[in-house]
């Protein structure tokens, strides 16, 4: 149980392209999903918290107009990297918290990540 | 601000026991989790401590001391497949998480 599907797993595209990444909780409902960015051999950096039915909460330094997040249902959140440039190349990972989660004592479930390469 | 510290690298041999420490300075601390990540993969949950003490899950155990703002992950009977990065993560009030810098564990034959 608690499977999170992230798609696509890898994207290679030209500079200026917009890229949409989907994060789906397959067997549970999630009011909260997180989007992380990870550089090689580095830790996960939280970009934003996505809440179903409301605007995402972005971490300091993350451009909300650059990284558009939509959480339209209890099982789907999307991250769109708009007008991507080479510096946006990274590993993007989503995670989801089950709706019935008691604060703190249940883990977030991660998708397999999306490796984005902008040429 | 929030900060977590872990050793950057640990090396051990198969069959050995290794301890990975994590110290933290955060506001609104709720609990400490541990995640394993193999190269190119996503993090997978290992253990969670919300209260002081030791939690045991098979070969992995995790410890927390809230008064010392300290925890550790203990890996026993190390196997080659345990070579990976290990992250501690603090759960904050408001359901956010902050990850430590990660510890790269290399298990040698």
Secondary-structure map with pairings?
The complex is a heterodimer of chains A (119) and B (109).
Chain A: E1 4-7, E2 10-13, E3 19-25, E4 32-38, E5 44-51, E6 57-58, E7 67-73, E8 76-81, E9 90-97, E10 109-110, E11 114-118
Parallel strand pairs in A: 2-11
Antiparallel strand pairs in A: 1-3, 3-8, 4-5, 4-9, 5-6, 7-8, 9-10, 9-11
Chain B: E1 3-5, E2 9-13, E3 18-25, E4 29-37, E5 44-49, E6 53-57, E7 60-65, E8 70-75, E9 84-92, E10 97-99, E11 103-108
Characterization of the model:
The complex is a heterodimer of chains A (119) and B (109). Chain A is built from no helices and eleven strands. Chain A is globular and about 40 Å long. In chain A, strands 2, 4, 5, 6, 9, 10 and 11 form a seven-stranded mixed sheet that branches. In chain A, strands 1-3-8-7 form a four-stranded antiparallel sheet, with no helix packed on it. In chain A, 0% of the residues lie in helices and 50% in strands. Chain A is an all-beta fold and 119 residues long. Chain B is an all-beta fold. Helix content of chain B is 0%, strand content 61%. Chain B contains no helices and eleven strands. In chain B, the strands form two sheets. In chain B, strands 2, 4, 5, 9, 10 and 11 form a six-stranded mixed sheet that branches. The mean pLDDT of chain B is 93. Classes of the chains: A mainly beta (119), B mainly beta (109).
